[in-house]
Automatic annotation (TrEMBL):
Protein name listed in UniProt: MobA-like NTP transferase domain-containing protein
Keywords, comma-separated and alphabetical: Transferase
Highest classification ranks of the organism: Bacteria, Bacillati, Actinomycetota, Actinomycetes, Propionibacteriales
SUPFAM superfamilies named among the record's database cross-references: Nucleotide-diphospho-sugar transferases
Organism: Kribbella karoonensis
Keyword Transferase: yes
Domain MobA-like NTP transferase: 2-134
Gene3D superfamilies linked: Spore Coat Polysaccharide Biosynthesis Protein SpsA, Chain A
Amino acid sequence: MLVLDGVSLLDRVLTATTAATSTVVVGPVRTACRPVQWTLENPPSGGPVAGLAAGLAYGVAPVVVVVSCDLPWITAADVQNLVDGLGEHDGFGLRDTSGQEQQLAAAYRRTALAAAVAQVGDPRDKSVRRTLAALDVAWTEPTRAGDDVDTWADLDD
């Protein structure tokens, strides 16, 4: 719900993903800049892998773009680059400016992502890195689009 330059972080991500065939937001329903499907992870507050499982229950597109809502600098061009960069890989994701791989800012083949999530069983409080570790994921060069905002100080970078 954080607002940066008059636009919520959620709306920034929704603007970056306007080319999507369908969009699912995992979280409580709130006002958004465009229509989306809403769902909650099960159990509520079960962590990001539970969120992936909940979101994967919707849609049928062979490519799924996963974007966390704490990426204020991601653009539609960045999202398109993720899809275009997938190639023969299971996934293609952003690296932040420090070089850190952002599993929650990536395009994935639905079948590969769904299989990885299903393999963990109960997704509650599971590690995203461990869940997706077996996937063949390629990464961008470091980019500000991959910089997430975990603290107020992150906005000053």
